[in-house]
Prior knowledge:
Layout: E1 5-14, E2 17-25, E3 34-38, E4 44-46, E5 49-53, E6 56-62, E7 75-82, E8 86-91, H1 105-113, H2 117-125, E9 130-133, E10 142-149, E11 156-163, H3 171-204, E12 212-217, H4 225-236, E13 244-249, H5 259-271, E14 274-277, E15 294-297, E16 331-334, H6 340-347, E17 354-356, H7 368-381, E18 389-393, H8 414-424, E19 426-430, E20 450-452, H9 459-463, E21 468-471, H10 476-481, E22 487-490, H11 494-500, H12 507-510, E23 514-516, H13 519-528, H14 534-543, H15 551-560
Amino acid sequence: MNDYKLKVDNIYWERIQLFIEGHTEGFEIESKNLILRNLTETKEVEANDVEIIGEYFKARFNIAILDSGNYLPSGQYLLIYKNDFEYIADINENLLDPLNYELDEEQLERYTLFETKNDKNNYLLSYFKHQFKKGGNSKKINYTVFPKISKQVNEFVLDIIFHKPKPKTNKVKVKWNKYKKMYNDKSYKIRNFFFKTIFNVTKFFHLRKGNTVLFTSDSRSEMSGNFEYVYNEMLRQNLNNTYKIHSLFKSNISTRRNFIDKFKFPFLLGKADYIFVDDFHPLLYTVKFRKSQEIIQVWHAVGAFKTVGYSRAGKKGGPFFNSVNHRNYTKAFVSSETDIPFYGEAFGIMERNIIPTGVPRTDILFDKNYEMKIITEMKEELPIIEDKKVILFAPTFRGNGHHTAHYPFFKIDFARLALYCRKNNAVVLFKMHPFVKNTLNIPREYKNYFVDVSDFREVNDILFITDILISDYSSLIYEFAVFKRPMLFYAFDLEDYVTSRDFYEPYEKFVPGKIVETFDDLISSLYNNDFEQEKVSKFLDKHFKYHDGRASERVVRNIFGS
């Protein structure tokens, strides 16, 4: 299907009617089934009319009545010809050539200043943008249709934005919301007062260093991850006979603590001599700990890939310099010396307090007995992998957060991938990010080659049976590097992703494998075993100081001197 193309040649408007003209390459349109579909695959609408003459087509969309007699809601919509296969429309290169536009000197200068290819393309495609303003001049209510290249999927889309002010609420509701806010503010102040009071009183009666340990997280519901390995190591060293070990968890930041935990948490926080955290923990930054208390950040991820914390100061979602977040950690543990300046930057703490011990939860990756055990179990649960080359496809999501998260499965040519599997005795396991809203639908004819393991248990267990990893911007590459096996980085949106999301090191120099930006290159690399695998050992040596599976032991000995 890689030679089959659906090309958009022209876009124009007649009142509220959007016309898209184009042609096909490698196939002919046999029906009028041209549709618009959003990226999360929750909305799909047909063209109002399609004219077909040979390989040429002209589709008409009445934007006022597309959605069952209503307008289309805001979102990005792909143009798709839907038949036995789906063909995603691509923009004709002529429409992306600045020479085909009468740009004056100022416009041409502006065009050249854009950083990415897609920014340049969208500047030209803005020529086809159409905005409808209420009453012809409203600044508050407008409906915009912008044919563009999406930065999320690097494909041609119609970007629709309906901008309108929030509806006015009645006076009763306004007053109710005002009183509700006052109540919530007072309630918060009362809760915060009791929290700090319990903490400070408890702290006062435990000024001398004792033997209390607390594991706490606002984003973890049980003893797992790095916590589990540190805790088990403490048990192995019989430290539970010397120290009183407590744990208090909460599944996510937005969840409220139960009544008992509201009192228990500040009490333990004030009493504990050693406090382990593994993520952002808001309440920890609101109190002043005694000097003898140790706040130990073991972080949930391996290495330093995408920027977090103060590394994002001044950017959306990042803390500013006067923030108290993270700053009270007395120790943080990382995998190697390479990560020390990055974690010091992210947490706003002195670099001398960051210790390269290795990451506790990676210990299991070096455990040969566990590896043999888990491989046996995995073969029982996934009999399809027996005597097969196993490829794990584990990308991150696209979108602007939990509600818009998706993965563009049309970027995968399943037919060609299945053919590769058949010729090379391989299977592909798909492990999608839990945020992804759209569903991976594996065609029946490919069931012998593909398996969706998105709901499967620990991803680290899957790594033991994986021969080749295909990813993009996931930190999973750190764990997989331990096995010194090949990786491919399918980064079809690399340029836009890099400009919108900072990395601690240049992506092209950082990743331990070959970067491919098209599916053609991906398939070619698989057939040719072209993985640039020599990068893996260098990556491992740089980001893992120790390769012995004893990180938990080093963390525990550093803290408790055992």
